[in-house]
Amino acid sequence: MCPDVSPMKDFDMNQFLGTWYVIQKTITGYRCIQHQITPLENEREYKISQVSPIDLLDKLLLKNEHTYAGFLVANAACPARMKVHYAFSIGEEAYIVVTTDYETYAAVVECTVAGRTATILSRTQSLSEFRLDELRAMLEKFCIRINDLSTISHKDCPRDNIRGLNIQIDHDLLSPDKYQKESDAMWRNLNQAIQDALNNGAKVK
């Protein structure tokens, strides 16, 4: 998938692990997005978690954190070209790291049968305009529409040292029973959180 997208040469997944802040991403309304990549037991297998607040609860001024996880498998011959399967998604996608210095920035292209998306990552909550321009120019070579990249705000993110709702959708949802159980629990927690916020006089921003 996406054979025209060139993966980074001499990529070291061990250095790529950890927390990344999403600085720009193809068409999204979310804010405060983090990606957390951790190793699993089997070689070349990793968990990728996208952490962000849910928009509706955010507007109700209710602190919340939503974790949406996927399962990454690296290619032995080309580690920067991976397969990813997200919870609740159908089929696998290509996850291709096109560049990173591991300590500051990274750019990733994801490909599905429906098309391709891009994400610009940073180890901190911002990147210089010079670096952003450089990464966008590289992504444009892989047929990424730069005007479709949304800038992700990390201002007043509702996660640090504050109690609140934590909804986790794990990558391990292979059985229909577990899928249904996780889905039911998520909606119960979400409905309860909204009701609690309304009962406490929360107003939508």
From TrEMBL:
GO terms for biological process: lipid metabolic process; response to reactive oxygen species. SUPFAM superfamilies: Lipocalins. Residues 18-153 form the Lipocalin/cytosolic fatty-acid binding domain. Keywords: Lipoprotein. One of its GO terms (cellular component) is cytoplasm. Gene3D superfamilies: 2.40.128.20. It comes from the Eukaryota. This is Putative apolipoprotein d/lipocalin lipocalin lipocalin. It comes from Lutzomyia longipalpis.
